Structure of 7-carboxy-7-deazaguanine synthase:
Amino acid sequence: MKQEVQELIDQGKMLPLMEEFYTIQGEGFHTGKAAYFIRVGGCDVGCHWCDVKESWNAELHPPTLADEIVSNAKKYSDTVVITGGEPLMWSMDYLTKTLQSQGVKTHIETSGAYQFSGTWDWFCLSPKKTKLPLDEVYEQADELKMIIHNKNDFKFAEEQASKVGKDCVLFLQPEWSKKEKMTPMIVDYVMDNPKWKVSLQTHKYLNIP
Ligand SMILES: C[S@@+](CC[C@H](N)C(=O)[O-])C[C@H]1O[C@@H](n2cnc3c(N)ncnc32)[C@H](O)[C@@H]1O
Ligand SMILES: Nc1nc2[nH]cc(C(=O)O)c2c(=O)[nH]1
Ligand code: SF4
Ligand SMILES: [Mg+2]
């Protein structure tokens, strides 16, 4: 890669952009809210059930100027969701400051496995067993969204819930390929443990991005 491009990436002024789209937030606390999604490439957390494996190899996604991403995003929405891939693999400071300076709210979807950066109006933390969140990240979480793929994941969810702040909203979300089996178990679990809420990937039911 050219040195100038690498420098801009290091400064967070360029990011490997996989896709951007205006849709409805399908999951978690802000379900149902219109938002512009920015999907940044690169992830090595390695979830075997990941629903965007095409995002993993950052080299497949062209380095794109953050200023261009911002000027495009604000045409669509006053709320941007930055996801991936794993957005915290990259410095989010410049992108989020620029969005906020133009009156756009910044939301993130992250595993928390990389160094914290960015200024966030909403921080959704979705921890993974293969690469746990860094200690510094738990206190940032406005929302904890645990994916339930099998029964053992309830225990992991409780362990992770003990690490976030008391105002963090707690969600259990069925892993999509196991939803027929796990959703009824999540429903029972939430009725028995009402500090949790159910989150569904509603965009997949609606057949929207
Ligand atoms: C694709 S990830 C990208 C952001 C970040 N890498 C993360 O995992 O939080 C976006 C959200 O989708 C969730 N997710 C990914 N694959 C899923 C699946 N098969 N079923 C349910 N949720 C899934 C993740 O846990 C995360 O909350
Ligand atoms: N509609 C919609 N809502 C989402 N919420 C989180 C998503 C993600 O992939 O991060 C996502 C997504 O891909 N589409
Ligand atoms: S951390 Fe997120 S993007 Fe990375 S593999 Fe897991 S679900 Fe996919
Ligand atoms: Mg998704």
Observations:
- The CA atoms of residues 135 and 163 lie 9 Å apart.
